[in-house]
Design goal:
Blueprint (H helix, E strand, L loop, with lengths): L24 E8 L2 H10 L6 E8 L17 E7 L5 H4 L2 H16 L5 E4 L3 E4 L2 E12 L5 E10 L25 H22 L2 H9 L7 E5 L4 E9 L5 E4 L5 E4 L3 E3 L1
Parallel strand pairs: 1-2
Antiparallel strand pairs: 2-3, 3-7, 4-5, 5-6, 6-7, 8-9, 8-12, 9-10, 10-11
EC number: 6.3.4.15
Protein name: biotin--[biotin carboxyl-carrier protein] ligase
Catalytic activity: biotin + L-lysyl-[protein] + ATP = N(6)-biotinyl-L-lysyl-[protein] + AMP + diphosphate + H(+)
Amino acid sequence: MGAGQPGGRGGFGYLALTSWPSGCGLLEFVDIDSTNEEARRRALAGEAGPLWITAERQTKGRGRRGRVWQAPPGNLSATLLIRPDRPAQECAQLSFAAALAVSDMLAHYASRHDIRLKWPNDVLVEGRKIAGILLESETQPDGLMRFLAIGIGVNLAAFPPETEFPATALGALGLTPPAPKAALTRLAGAFLKWYEVWRGEGFAPLRAAWLARAYGIGRPIRVRLAAEDIHGVFRDLDETGALLLELPNGAVRTIAAGEVFF
Protein backbone atom coordinates (compact mmCIF):
# COMPACT_ATOMS: atom_id res chain seq x y z
CA MET A 1 0.00 0.00 0.00
CA GLY A 2 1.48 3.35 -0.97
CA ALA A 3 1.44 6.55 0.99
CA GLY A 4 -1.78 8.52 1.09
CA GLN A 5 -1.86 12.27 0.72
CA PRO A 6 -1.96 14.21 3.98
CA GLY A 7 -4.94 16.39 4.66
CA GLY A 8 -4.32 20.10 5.05
CA ARG A 9 -0.75 21.15 5.73
CA GLY A 10 0.76 17.78 6.52
CA GLY A 11 -2.13 16.50 8.63
CA PHE A 12 -3.77 13.08 8.80
CA GLY A 13 -7.39 12.06 8.74
CA TYR A 14 -8.46 10.43 12.00
CA LEU A 15 -10.98 7.60 12.28
CA ALA A 16 -10.45 5.57 15.47
CA LEU A 17 -7.72 3.75 17.30
CA THR A 18 -8.95 0.47 15.84
CA SER A 19 -9.01 1.80 12.27
CA TRP A 20 -6.04 2.75 10.14
CA PRO A 21 -5.71 6.56 9.95
CA SER A 22 -6.95 7.84 6.61
CA GLY A 23 -4.37 9.64 4.48
CA CYS A 24 -1.54 7.65 6.05
CA GLY A 25 0.27 5.03 4.02
CA LEU A 26 1.51 1.64 5.19
CA LEU A 27 4.29 -0.58 3.85
CA GLU A 28 4.72 -4.06 5.34
CA PHE A 29 7.83 -6.19 4.90
CA VAL A 30 8.75 -9.67 6.05
CA ASP A 31 12.50 -8.97 6.05
CA ILE A 32 14.31 -5.66 5.73
CA ASP A 33 17.64 -4.20 6.77
CA SER A 34 16.08 -1.39 8.81
CA THR A 35 12.72 0.35 8.73
CA ASN A 36 14.48 3.65 9.43
CA GLU A 37 16.84 3.02 6.51
CA GLU A 38 13.92 2.22 4.22
CA ALA A 39 12.29 5.48 5.31
CA ARG A 40 15.49 7.34 4.40
CA ARG A 41 15.66 5.69 0.98
CA ARG A 42 12.07 6.57 0.20
CA ALA A 43 12.44 10.12 1.46
CA LEU A 44 15.47 10.73 -0.73
CA ALA A 45 13.48 9.32 -3.67
CA GLY A 46 10.80 11.95 -3.08
CA GLU A 47 8.33 10.33 -0.66
CA ALA A 48 7.01 12.91 1.82
CA GLY A 49 4.69 10.65 3.83
CA PRO A 50 2.96 10.27 6.14
CA LEU A 51 4.03 6.67 5.68
CA TRP A 52 4.43 3.89 8.24
CA ILE A 53 6.96 1.18 7.41
CA THR A 54 6.97 -2.06 9.38
CA ALA A 55 8.78 -5.39 9.17
CA GLU A 56 8.61 -8.78 10.85
CA ARG A 57 12.41 -8.94 10.95
CA GLN A 58 15.19 -6.38 10.66
CA THR A 59 18.70 -7.55 9.81
CA LYS A 60 20.30 -4.22 10.75
CA GLY A 61 17.86 -2.65 13.18
CA ARG A 62 19.51 0.05 15.23
CA GLY A 63 18.95 2.02 18.38
CA ARG A 64 20.54 5.15 19.76
CA ARG A 65 24.26 5.76 19.24
CA GLY A 66 24.42 3.08 16.56
CA ARG A 67 23.57 0.20 18.87
CA VAL A 68 21.95 -2.91 17.42
CA TRP A 69 18.21 -3.08 18.14
CA GLN A 70 17.13 -6.68 18.70
CA ALA A 71 13.51 -7.52 17.89
CA PRO A 72 12.48 -11.14 18.57
CA PRO A 73 9.60 -12.51 16.45
CA GLY A 74 6.22 -11.12 17.44
CA ASN A 75 7.53 -7.70 18.45
CA LEU A 76 6.72 -4.42 16.73
CA SER A 77 9.32 -2.70 14.57
CA ALA A 78 8.03 0.32 12.69
CA THR A 79 9.05 3.73 11.37
CA LEU A 80 6.91 6.74 10.54
CA LEU A 81 8.18 8.89 7.68
CA ILE A 82 6.89 12.47 7.72
CA ARG A 83 7.97 15.91 6.56
CA PRO A 84 6.85 18.45 9.17
CA ASP A 85 6.96 22.07 8.02
CA ARG A 86 8.91 23.09 11.10
CA PRO A 87 12.56 23.78 11.99
CA ALA A 88 14.64 20.75 12.90
CA GLN A 89 14.98 21.81 16.54
CA GLU A 90 11.21 21.81 16.97
CA CYS A 91 10.79 18.48 15.18
CA ALA A 92 12.98 16.80 17.79
CA GLN A 93 10.04 17.33 20.17
CA LEU A 94 8.15 14.64 18.28
CA SER A 95 10.10 12.02 20.22
CA PHE A 96 7.85 13.02 23.15
CA ALA A 97 4.77 12.65 20.95
CA ALA A 98 5.96 9.17 19.99
CA ALA A 99 6.57 8.19 23.62
CA LEU A 100 3.11 9.38 24.62
CA ALA A 101 1.57 7.45 21.72
CA VAL A 102 3.41 4.26 22.67
CA SER A 103 2.25 4.60 26.28
CA ASP A 104 -1.32 5.17 25.09
CA MET A 105 -1.13 2.02 22.96
CA LEU A 106 0.36 -0.04 25.79
CA ALA A 107 -2.29 1.18 28.23
CA HIS A 108 -4.89 -0.63 26.14
CA TYR A 109 -3.09 -3.96 26.60
CA ALA A 110 -1.56 -3.46 30.07
CA SER A 111 -4.04 -1.22 31.85
CA ARG A 112 -3.27 -2.67 35.28
CA HIS A 113 0.47 -2.05 34.99
CA ASP A 114 2.53 1.04 35.72
CA ILE A 115 3.52 2.61 32.38
CA ARG A 116 6.07 5.42 32.57
CA LEU A 117 8.22 7.51 30.24
CA LYS A 118 11.99 7.68 30.60
CA TRP A 119 13.87 10.66 29.24
CA PRO A 120 14.64 11.11 26.46
CA ASN A 121 12.89 8.41 24.42
CA ASP A 122 12.11 5.17 26.25
CA VAL A 123 8.89 3.68 27.60
CA LEU A 124 8.92 1.59 30.76
CA VAL A 125 6.47 -0.86 32.28
CA GLU A 126 6.98 -1.65 35.96
CA GLY A 127 10.34 0.14 35.77
CA ARG A 128 11.69 -1.96 32.89
CA LYS A 129 12.18 -0.88 29.29
CA ILE A 130 9.52 -2.11 26.87
CA ALA A 131 9.99 0.33 23.98
CA GLY A 132 12.58 2.58 22.41
CA ILE A 133 12.34 5.45 19.95
CA LEU A 134 14.94 6.67 17.45
CA LEU A 135 14.57 9.87 15.42
CA GLU A 136 16.66 10.31 12.29
CA SER A 137 16.38 13.21 9.89
CA GLU A 138 17.90 15.40 7.24
CA THR A 139 17.64 19.17 7.17
CA GLN A 140 17.32 21.43 4.14
CA PRO A 141 19.49 24.56 3.69
CA ASP A 142 16.55 26.70 4.85
CA GLY A 143 16.52 24.89 8.20
CA LEU A 144 13.29 22.98 7.57
CA MET A 145 13.13 19.21 7.54
CA ARG A 146 13.81 17.30 4.34
CA PHE A 147 12.41 14.30 6.19
CA LEU A 148 11.92 12.89 9.67
CA ALA A 149 11.97 9.16 10.39
CA ILE A 150 10.54 8.14 13.78
CA GLY A 151 11.62 4.58 14.49
CA ILE A 152 9.75 2.72 17.23
CA GLY A 153 10.44 -0.73 18.64
CA VAL A 154 8.05 -2.29 21.15
CA ASN A 155 8.60 -5.57 23.00
CA LEU A 156 5.24 -7.24 22.57
CA ALA A 157 6.01 -10.96 22.73
CA ALA A 158 9.54 -11.08 24.14
CA PHE A 159 12.54 -8.96 25.08
CA PRO A 160 16.21 -9.40 24.20
CA PRO A 161 18.48 -10.78 26.92
CA GLU A 162 21.46 -9.02 28.47
CA THR A 163 20.35 -5.44 27.88
CA GLU A 164 22.12 -2.61 29.68
CA PHE A 165 18.84 -1.30 31.12
CA PRO A 166 16.46 -3.97 32.48
CA ALA A 167 13.85 -4.91 29.85
CA THR A 168 10.44 -6.50 29.69
CA ALA A 169 7.66 -7.39 27.23
CA LEU A 170 3.91 -7.77 27.40
CA GLY A 171 4.37 -11.53 27.19
CA ALA A 172 6.79 -11.45 30.13
CA LEU A 173 4.16 -9.65 32.19
CA GLY A 174 1.78 -12.58 31.79
CA LEU A 175 -0.30 -10.77 29.19
CA THR A 176 -1.36 -12.02 25.79
CA PRO A 177 0.63 -9.93 23.32
CA PRO A 178 -1.32 -8.44 20.43
CA ALA A 179 -0.43 -9.04 16.81
CA PRO A 180 2.10 -6.40 15.70
CA LYS A 181 -0.34 -5.06 13.08
CA ALA A 182 -3.05 -4.52 15.71
CA ALA A 183 -0.58 -2.75 18.00
CA LEU A 184 0.66 -0.59 15.11
CA THR A 185 -2.89 0.44 14.22
CA ARG A 186 -3.48 1.71 17.76
CA LEU A 187 -0.04 3.34 17.81
CA ALA A 188 -0.66 5.14 14.50
CA GLY A 189 -3.95 6.53 15.76
CA ALA A 190 -2.46 7.61 19.07
CA PHE A 191 0.50 9.30 17.40
CA LEU A 192 -1.87 11.19 15.13
CA LYS A 193 -3.61 12.62 18.19
CA TRP A 194 -0.39 13.95 19.73
CA TYR A 195 0.99 15.10 16.38
CA GLU A 196 -2.06 17.27 15.78
CA VAL A 197 -1.82 18.67 19.31
CA TRP A 198 1.81 19.58 18.64
CA ARG A 199 1.01 21.16 15.29
CA GLY A 200 -1.87 23.19 16.70
CA GLU A 201 -0.71 24.08 20.21
CA GLY A 202 3.05 23.61 20.28
CA PHE A 203 5.16 21.64 22.70
CA ALA A 204 3.64 22.79 26.00
CA PRO A 205 0.74 20.26 26.09
CA LEU A 206 3.12 17.42 25.18
CA ARG A 207 5.55 18.52 27.89
CA ALA A 208 2.78 18.57 30.50
CA ALA A 209 1.45 15.15 29.46
CA TRP A 210 4.96 13.67 29.37
CA LEU A 211 5.83 14.99 32.83
CA ALA A 212 2.60 13.50 34.21
CA ARG A 213 3.85 10.08 33.08
CA ALA A 214 7.57 10.60 33.71
CA TYR A 215 9.71 8.09 35.56
CA GLY A 216 12.28 9.36 38.04
CA ILE A 217 11.37 13.01 38.63
CA GLY A 218 12.81 14.07 41.96
CA ARG A 219 15.10 11.04 42.07
CA PRO A 220 18.89 10.82 41.86
CA ILE A 221 20.01 9.81 38.37
CA ARG A 222 23.19 9.33 36.37
CA VAL A 223 23.35 10.91 32.93
CA ARG A 224 25.77 9.52 30.38
CA LEU A 225 27.03 12.19 28.01
CA ALA A 226 29.44 11.81 25.11
CA ALA A 227 32.51 12.59 27.22
CA GLU A 228 31.40 12.16 30.84
CA ASP A 229 28.88 10.80 33.30
CA ILE A 230 27.25 13.27 35.66
CA HIS A 231 25.11 12.71 38.74
CA GLY A 232 22.27 14.76 40.13
CA VAL A 233 18.53 14.95 40.72
CA PHE A 234 16.04 14.97 37.83
CA ARG A 235 14.05 18.16 38.47
CA ASP A 236 12.11 19.01 35.32
CA LEU A 237 12.05 19.51 31.56
CA ASP A 238 12.59 22.95 30.08
CA GLU A 239 10.34 24.43 27.42
CA THR A 240 12.27 22.64 24.65
CA GLY A 241 12.29 19.17 26.25
CA ALA A 242 15.81 19.33 27.67
CA LEU A 243 16.38 17.67 31.05
CA LEU A 244 17.03 19.93 34.04
CA LEU A 245 19.49 18.24 36.38
CA GLU A 246 20.20 19.60 39.86
CA LEU A 247 23.87 19.01 40.60
CA PRO A 248 25.24 18.20 44.08
CA ASN A 249 26.32 21.86 44.50
CA GLY A 250 22.76 23.06 43.86
CA ALA A 251 23.38 24.37 40.35
CA VAL A 252 20.98 23.28 37.60
CA ARG A 253 22.42 21.95 34.36
CA THR A 254 20.42 21.80 31.15
CA ILE A 255 21.00 18.60 29.18
CA ALA A 256 19.78 18.39 25.60
CA ALA A 257 20.97 14.84 24.87
CA GLY A 258 22.17 11.93 26.97
CA GLU A 259 21.24 8.60 28.52
CA VAL A 260 19.65 8.34 31.95
CA PHE A 261 20.26 5.60 34.50
CA PHE A 262 18.72 5.16 37.94
